[in-house]
């Protein structure tokens, strides 16, 4: 099982990797806005492909053109390197 990271380590990794995520307790949260509902769905589809490849899946909420992603390693009970790694991959989808 992956090691749970302490909040300071998570905050440091977010800063070092220049990730566009916020730590909310034991979750990483990212909110993005896309062009309409179709744009939001296209973004979610791209995130889904990354999540499947990593075998690590965010909680996803879609509200018309706004997508909220939440990452946490539920099986470990907190944030792990898996969350930071997937957050890094998702941040590369800026053009989707």
How would you summarize the topology of this molecule?
Layout: H1 7-16, E1 22-24, E2 27-33, H2 36-54, E3 59-63, E4 66-71, H3 81-91
Antiparallel strand pairs: 1-2, 2-4, 3-4
What is this structure, in a nutshell?
By secondary structure, this protein is of the alpha+beta class. It is 42% helix and 22% strand.
Word description of this protein:
This protein is α+β, with helices and mostly antiparallel strands. The chain has one domain: Gyrase A, domain 2, CATH 3.30.1360. It contains three helices and four strands. The N and C termini lie far apart (32 Å). The model has no long low-confidence stretch (mean pLDDT 95).
Mean of all residue-level pLDDT scores: 95
The CATH architecture would be 2-Layer Sandwich
Fraction in beta strands: 15-25%
The share of residues in helices is 40-55%
Kindly report the CATH topology.
Gyrase A, domain 2
Work out the count of structural domains. Answer: 1
| Contiguous uncertain segments of 5+ residues | none
Q: Distance N terminus to C terminus?
A: 32 Å
- Shape, please? globular
CATH class type? Alpha Beta
Please supply descriptive tags for the structure shown above:
single chain, four-stranded antiparallel β-sheet, globular, alpha+beta, Gyrase A, domain 2, 22% strand, 96 residues
